[in-house]
Design goal:
Length: about 700
């Protein structure tokens, strides 16, 4: 993926090792604490420290009055200790003087109510005043530290759009109109795209258009979808404005921390990825989910996808509990290392944490850190030291690439559209469907590359397309061409229904069957029959379906399984269609995960991929370069497992591996094996499990 800084400069952060890093907020501590902090960082092997993330109020206590003394001092101290710096531009949260002087920068919710200071990110992303003041600060910071030898990376703002992505104020409304004018050029084109003939919504002038503020009934879906697109673009534009200021003063690579997680969905990171010199992601284990570990792996794979397969940085994670979930579950001994190695296995070349030292005050005082309140005689500190040791032991893995035979198509825009108002079933949640598909592959021991709609699919033995409601004809064509060329596509319900304007693909004559995949699937859907919340249906195979059924009409497809009961009893539930040299499978219900995994196991085998028979709770992922393969065996289960492995060296213990590697419960092992031969990736995949 082409990035703005030269490849050499962009790799400056990397230094052929797996980075160990953290956020550090020294302004929360007396200077006497800094010395011991830096000594302990050195002991733990922390090599990259993010500072000045929330620095604005400290370095600019009043408008135009700058005080860099503390920042100079901490930068000097870190530099003397050989610790490199991930330097925040400082704009993550506005100081109170700014919003007091300019309350018009405050964000406004869809119901018209203002969001006030006292938390963080209390500004409208489109506010020209915010931008002007923020960029003035960035300019000072970039000029002062832009060639400092300790600075390895620029950290623009922080988690851009985390809280304030959607602002409905009058300034945002005006910016939205400008964005729409650029997109549609004339108002009739907008009317056509939004289908405003419905409910008397025709616009005669741009000035009549508002953001999708709270309405009495369902809102126009096109208006809502475009507002999501606008909001992501607006935040990206802001990121770019900061990055431009930084780049004018510095050749050090620039990034910002993405939030590829289960609870943030407002940024279309496919649009953002090429603007950062290295992709960085914040990820916290989400214990609100049924399968937090599976989501962790998914997010890591998606982050690697954003990086185009290049190494990326886990910019934030937690050593133990967070403080923002309803029940903040602490990690067991070793879990910190296990989670971190899961991220490395899936392409991370940097593992960083929020934060170095646990806070005594403020909204996150119960959030874990590398150095906990309990000090160094603690489970967390022992795990911190162990992680530092383990990351050093696997340093040679840096810059290798993850092997994957299967691709899954992921789309933020489709997510936004699929979850609009007035859909057939509010139980169809895009991310849940993606997670289910991912888990079904994971249970087959398959490593997945996440790709955007329209990406080149050649080289993959199988492509999974879960619940891809919105895509363009050209993007649908890529999937059809891939299949015609000999690939296997698995497409699940609620896919291919609408075009880029959220317009249903139906033909008024009824002669052309609806949907983007009718020819590919050799089947089409006459009517949807969503299920009631607790309703289950049984298929002929004995598999269970939930949430969704539909009346599938086959043309050339053959049914592989049918509904035995429920609203469409006797009709196909899973179909298969030969298409060119390939095959397309359609799944017309939300299969229980065991059944989903079993079905995909068969399809994978038919596609020439021998699914790994790994014990439950074990992940196997391979990173490689032209010289070596590194097999990560990650054991999330409580029991010790022994996995057949080609001979090599286990890097975390230094022990020889002869035919098999034993992995204690809750641990991970990394086996270096000799050079891969010229055989296909598929053979490699099989070998890894043998
Ligand atoms: C992130 C944020 C950090 C900290 C962390 C706590 O959202 O960037 O500053 O708040 O979460 O988990």
């Amino acid at each position: 993926m082409e990035r703005h800084t030269t490849a050499e400069a962009a790799r400056g952060w990397q230094q052929s090792s797996i980075l160990f890093g953290c956020d550090y907020n020294p302004e929360q501590w007396d200077r006497s604490v800094w010395q011991s902090d830096v000594a302990l960082m050195t002991e733990a092997g922390v090599g990259l420290v993010a500072i000045n993330i929330f620095g604005w109020a400290s370095i600019e206590p009043q408008q135009g009055q700058f005080d860099f003394d503390s920042l100079d001092a901490i930068i000097a101290l870190l530099h003397e200790s050989g610790i490199r710096i991930n330097l925040g531009t400082g704009t993550a949260s506005t100081p109170p003087w700014l919003s007091t002087k300019h309350p018009e920068i405050l964000p406004v919710a869809a119901d018209g109510t203002t969001r006030f200071p006292g938390g963080r990110q209390a500004h409208c992303p489109s506010s020209p005043i915010f931008r002007e003041r923020a960029l003035a600060l960035v300019e000072r910071v970039a000029e002062r530290y832009g060639s400092h030898p300790a600075v390895a990376l620029w950290h623009v703002s922080n988690e851009i759009g985390c809280h304030n992505a959607l602002c409905y104020c009058d300034v945002s409304a005006e910016a939205f109109r400008r964005w729409l004018e650029t997109r549609y050029e004339n108002i009739d084109a907008l009317n056509a795209a939004w289908g405003t003939t419905f409910w008397s919504q025709r616009y005669g002038d741009w000035a009549e258009i508002l953001p999708p503020r709270l309405t009495l009934s369902s809102i126009n879906p096109g208006q809502k979808l475009d507002f999501s697109r606008f909001s992501s673009d607006e935040l990206l534009d802001y990121y770019r404005s900061e990055a431009d200021v930084v780049r004018a003063a510095s050749h050090i690579p620039v990034t910002t921390n993405f939030m590829v997680t289960a609870h943030i969905r407002n940024m279309d990171y496919w649009q953002w990825a090429s603007d950062v010199d290295v992709v960085a992601n914040d990820h916290y284990l989400d214990n609100r989910l049924a399968l937090p570990q599976s989501e962790l792996s998914f997010a890591a794979d998606l982050t690697r996808g954003l990086a185009g397969g290049d190494p990326w940085i886990l910019m934030e994670s937690s050593t133990s509990a967070v403080s923002w979930q309803p029940h903040n579950i602490a990690k067991q001994p070793g879990e910190l290392v296990l989670n971190s190695l899961t991220q490395v296995a899936r392409g991370a070349d940097g593992i960083c944490f929020f934060q170095w030292r646990a806070s005594r005050q403020g909204a996150e005082k119960f959030h874990s850190a590398l150095l906990p309140h309990a000090g160094t005689d603690s489970k967390i500190w022992r795990d911190t030291l162990e992680l530092g040791r383990v990351l050093r032991s696997i340093a040679e893995v840096a810059e290798t690439r993850v092997e994957a035979d299967v691709a899954m198509i992921f789309s933020w825009q489709s997510w936004w559209a699929a979850e609009g108002d007035s859909q057939p079933s509010s139980a169809v949640r895009y991310l849940e469907q993606v997670h289910a598909a991912y888990e079904a592959l994971r249970r087959n021991g398959v490593t997945v590359d996440m790709v955007p709609p329209g990406a080149d699919l050649s080289g993959y033995a199988l492509v999974l397309v879960p619940c891809l409601y919105l895509l363009t004809d050209a993007e649908a064509g890529v999937i059809s061409n891939y299949t015609a060329g000999g690939g296997t596509a698995v497409i699940t319900f609620f896919s291919g229904l609408v075009d880029n304007d959220d317009r249903l693909r139906v033909d008024p004559t009824g002669r052309i069957r609806p949907g983007a995949f009718v020819d590919l699937l050799g089947a089409w859907t006459e009517e949807f029959f969503p299920l009631r919340p607790d309703q289950r249906v049984i298929l002929d195979s004995g598999a269970t379906g939930k949430i969704w059924t539909e009346l599938v009409r086959t043309v050339t497809a053959v049914p592989l399984d049918s509904f035995r009961d429920g609203p469409v009893a006797g009709r196909p539930a899973v179909t298969s269609n030969s298409f060119g040299a390939g095959r397309a499978i359609y799944i017309a219900t939300d299969l229980a995960v065991d059944d989903y995994a079993a079905l995909l196991g068969t399809v994978l085998a038919d596609a020439g991929l021998q699914p790994n028979s790994l014990p439950s709770g074990v992940e196997l992922v391979v990173r490689s370069n032209e010289s070596y393969r590194y097999t990560f065996v990650i054991n999330h289960s409580a029991d010790e497992v022994t996995i057949a492995a080609a001979d090599g060296i286990e890097l975390t213990t230094g022990q020889a591996v002869v035919g098999a590697v034993t992995v204690p419960g809750g641990s991970a092992r990394v086996v270096r094996q000799g050079a891969p031969d010229a055989a296909s990736k598929h053979d490699n995949h099989e070998r890894a499990a043998q």
